[in-house]
């Protein structure tokens, strides 16, 4: 009887030990923003913003990488190769950062901390404004009889696109379906490239390889140059307007009066 009790106690000890190790392996830490700021200053780490690209563009912590929680499981292996590196996660209020931290620990990342939301951040914040606040003209994308208005990127590609369309008035581009998230087709000329790794949002218009235009109604992460963004359209609305398969679009400028 004595031996049986000792055996049961040993078994319970081993089960508790295994359970504790599993919890330790798959846990993350919630830390204060003051502690996060100290880590950024004193330790080797990667700061990860898990909000959407548009939220990130409106204001983010300097040097933070943008990995939206919706796609972090897919993107993390490529963007966060070192699973032992200190990762500091934040979102807007702290909800998505906890969700993303849980995903990363399940993927095997061993040093994950989340520190809440940027809404309470007392440190520096930088912005990425890709489009002019008061544009002199908008880009009109006409497809299947519907005219869509888009803001033009404030970069060399955007300026050159305006110059070309001012000269030629209107162009037609044949777009092909790609990956169920975009339409892509060749422009009649090349534009300056300022490629960066971008995760697209619904309505984004990007330049690909210098001479192809891509219009997105879904997400994809690749190296593109921003050209513009279609205003006020949902994913389902854009998919319905563009339809399935190949489609021809017209591009021209709409000059604005203020």
* Average of the residue pLDDT scores: 87
What does the radius of gyration come to?
24 Å
Strand proportion, as a percent range, falls in 25-35%
Task: Quickly name the level 1 CATH class of the largest domain.
Answer: Mainly Beta
Number of strands: 14
How many helices? 7
Based on secondary structure, the structural category is alpha+beta
Biggest pleated sheet: 8 strands, antiparallel, barrel
Low-confidence stretches: 17-25
How would you sum up this structure, described in words?
With 258 residues, this protein is of the alpha+beta class. The chain has two domains: 98 residues, Rhodanese-like domain (Oxidized Rhodanese, domain 1), CATH 3.40.250.10; 119 residues, Cyclophilin, CATH 2.40.100.20. Helix content is 31%, strand content 32%. The chain contains seven helices and 14 strands. The strands form two sheets. It has an eight-stranded antiparallel β-barrel with strand order 6-7-13-11-12-9-8-14. A five-stranded parallel sheet has the order 1-5-4-2-3, with helices on both faces. Strand 2, helix 3 and strand 3 form a beta-alpha-beta unit. The termini are far apart.
Short description:
It contains seven helices and 14 strands. The protein has an eight-stranded antiparallel barrel with strand order 6-7-13-11-12-9-8-14.
Set out the fold topology.
Layout: H1 2-25, E1 29-30, H2 33-42, E2 45-49, H3 53-58, E3 65-66, H4 72-79, E4 86-91, H5 95-106, E5 112-117, E6 137-143, E7 146-152, H6 156-168, E8 170-178, E9 182-186, E10 196-199, E11 204-208, E12 212-216, E13 221-230, H7 235-242, E14 247-255
Parallel strand pairs: 1-5, 2-3, 2-4, 4-5
Antiparallel strand pairs: 6-7, 6-14, 7-13, 8-9, 8-14, 9-12, 10-13, 11-12, 11-13
């Amino acid at each position: 009887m004595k031996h049986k009790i000792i055996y049961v106690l040993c078994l319970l000890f081993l089960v508790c030990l295994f359970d504790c190790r599993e919890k330790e392996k798959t846990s993350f830490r919630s830390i204060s923003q003051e502690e996060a700021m100290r880590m950024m200053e004193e330790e080797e780490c990667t700061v990860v913003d898990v909000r959407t690209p548009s939220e990130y563009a409106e204001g983010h912590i300097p040097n933070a990488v943008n990995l939206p929680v919706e796609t972090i499981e897919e993107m993390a292996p490529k963007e966060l190769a070192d699973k032992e590196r200190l990762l500091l996660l934040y979102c807007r209020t702290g909800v998505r950062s906890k969700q993303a931290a849980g995903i990363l620990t399940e993927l095997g990342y061993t040093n994950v901390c989340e520190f809440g939301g940027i809404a309470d951040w007392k440190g520096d914040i930088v912005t990425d404004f890709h489009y002019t606040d008061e544009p002199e003209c908008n880009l009109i994308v006409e497809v299947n009889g519907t005219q869509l208005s888009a803001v033009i990127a404030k970069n060399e590609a955007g300026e050159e696109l305006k110059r070309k369309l001012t000269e030629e008035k209107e162009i037609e581009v044949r777009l092909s379906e790609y990956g169920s998230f975009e339409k892509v087709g060749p422009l009649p000329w090349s534009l300056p490239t300022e490629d960066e790794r971008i995760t697209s949002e619904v309505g984004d218009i990007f330049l690909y390889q210098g001479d192809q235009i891509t219009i997105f109604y879904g997400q994809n992460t690749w190296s593109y140059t921003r050209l513009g963004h279609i205003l006020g359209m949902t994913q389902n609305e854009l998919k319905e307007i563009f339809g399935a398969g190949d489609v021809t679009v017209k591009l021209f400028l709409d000059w604005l009066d203020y």
